[in-house]
Specification:
Blueprint (H helix, E strand, L loop, with lengths): L1 H12 L4 H25 L3 H11 L1 E2 L2 H5 L4 H4 L7 H22 L1 H25 L11 E2 L3 H14 L4 E4 L3 E4 H14 L6 H22 L6 H14 L9 H22 L5 H14 L6 H11 L2
Antiparallel strand pairs: 1-2, 3-4
Subcellular location: Membrane
Protein name: Membrane associated rhomboid family serine protease
Membrane topology: Multi-pass membrane protein
């Protein structure tokens, strides 16, 4: 058991593995909820378990939400039932790896969080303003990472629509078709028993699409998330101050500026059309996974032009 804890702690100490950290966070919360359910059920205090769930799930009523605003964030880290968490985390693993490989960990986290928050906002808005949903207002709440995961799916499909996944019993399927099927299923269930969850799916999908399109036009929706993350990182991380002699500091500064200028000049090289065509041909023949890191970066630079 201690080795499992060591492995988990090791994963959280690593950098550039946001997919694993998000999955572990959701799984840890899920396991904790199962333990609470078992303990309170055996102790014959099921109302305590329900109280815990009420503090984590997002209520449909805006009045109830005002008394626990934190649920706008906590709801998409909470799952009930093994299949609920399994399929969400499996989708996050598949599609999240594509985004993390191409855009980095912090942008993946930003898309996930913004998708989950947007899902909660649309859920609250529709249930409080649209008459169709209001009969269920008092008895409905939202949990699950589906909205956040849909943001990741649509983000990956918008970034790399021709990227293929191998689907069991079907074969290779392009990301754009997987995303289209997800949207169709969501739209078909907007008036079903899980209408609230599907509203969150739709909001997450819009965030994933908009995030990538905005990024390709030069604006990053994730900036507020990065700022908040850096703020908390400064609070919980302390770096020892290293005394550097004045002469050495000046030399280091000059060298660093020279290196930075060279790096910036190198980073703005845009691949030509022949290079892009060759990369696209390689994707169509061998799949996105066959690309080198340099080829992935070239493709991303081309998509921003």
């Amino acid at each position: 058991m201690s080795s499992i804890f060591d492995d988990v702690r090791g994963e959280f100490s690593k950098t550039n593995n946001a997919v694993i950290k998000l999955i572990l966070t959701n799984v840890i919360v899920f396991v904790a909820i199962i333990i609470l359910y078992i303990v309170f059920t055996i102790a014959q205090y099921p109302h305590y378990y329900q109280w815990v769930m009420d503090q984590l799930s997002l209520p449909a009523s805006f009045g109830a939400f005002l008394y626990k605003p934190w649920t706008l964030l906590t709801n998409f880290f909470v799952h009930q039932g093994p299949f609920h968490v399994f399929f969400n985390m499996l989708s996050l693993y598949w599609f999240g790896q594509v985004l993390e490989e191409y855009l980095g960990s912090r942008r993946l986290i930003a898309i996930f969080l913004l998708g989950g928050l947007a899902g909660g906002v649309l859920f609250l808005t529709m249930y409080n303003l649209v008459p169709y949903f209001q009969p269920e207002l008092a008895n409905t709440s939202l949990i699950g990472a589906s909205g956040a995961v849909f943001a990741v799916i649509l983000g990956a499909a918008t970034l790399l629509p021709e990227h293929t996944f191998f689907v069991f019993l079907i074969g290779p399927v392009r990301l754009k078709y997987i995303a289209a099927l997800c949207i169709i299923i969501t739209m078909a269930q907007l008036v079903g028993p899980n209408a609230g969850g599907n509203l969150a799916h739709l909001a997450g999908a819009m965030v994933g699409f908009g995030f990538i399109k905005s990024l390709q036009n030069g604006y990053d929706w994730g900036k507020p998330i990065y700022t908040i993350g850096e703020f908390f990182q400064k609070i919980f991380t302390s770096k020892p101050r290293i005394q550097v002699p004045q002469r050495a500091r000046a030399t280091t500064s000059t060298t660093a500026r020279h290196f930075s200028q060279k790096s910036e000049n190198a980073s703005v090289i845009i691949p030509n059309q022949d290079e892009i065509d060759a990369i696209l041909d390689k994707i169509s023949k061998s799949g996105y996974e066959s690309l080198t890191r340099e080829e992935k970066q070239k493709l991303y630079k081309a998509s921003q032009q």
